[in-house]
Amino acid sequence: MSKQVDTRGLSCPQPVVLVLRAIQQGDQMFEVLLDSEVACENVRRLLGSRGFRIEETQAADGTVFQVSR
C-alpha cells in the first residue's frame, strides 16, 4: 500500500474527511485503519459511492480497509 489513513480514535465525521482528502489527492490504493463501527459504515458508504473496492479485515485494534479502484 502506498498510503495509510489512520482514523483510530477519531469521531465522525473526521474519518470520512480524512478518507475524502486521500481521494482528492488522487490516491487510487490506500489502507484505512478504523476502530468504530459507525466510522466503518460511513467510510464504506463514501468509498462505494466513489467506485472504490474494499477488502475488509479485522485486526486486534480495529478494522482495516484495503482500498483500491
What does this structure look like?
Helix 1 runs parallel beside helix 2. By secondary structure, the protein is α+β, with helices and mostly antiparallel strands. Strand 1 (4-6), helix 1 and strand 2 (29-34) form a beta-alpha-beta unit. A four-stranded mixed sheet has the order 1-2-4-3, covered by helices on one side. The mean pLDDT is 95. It has helices at 14-24, 37-49, and strands at 4-6, 29-34, 53-59, 62-68. The protein has one domain: Translation Initiation Factor IF3 (2-Layer Sandwich), CATH 3.30.110.40. The protein contains two helices and four strands.
Task: Reconstruct the topology from this structure.
Layout: E1 4-6, H1 14-24, E2 29-34, H2 37-49, E3 53-59, E4 62-68
Parallel strand pairs: 1-2
Antiparallel strand pairs: 2-4, 3-4
How many strands, which pairing sense, and closed or not: the largest β-sheet?
Answer: 4 strands, mixed
The CATH topology name reads Translation Initiation Factor IF3
- Give the mean pLDDT: 95
Specify Rg, calculated over alpha carbons.
11 Å
- Termini gap: 13 Å
SS-derived structural category? alpha+beta
What is the string of helix and strand elements?
Answer: EHEHEE
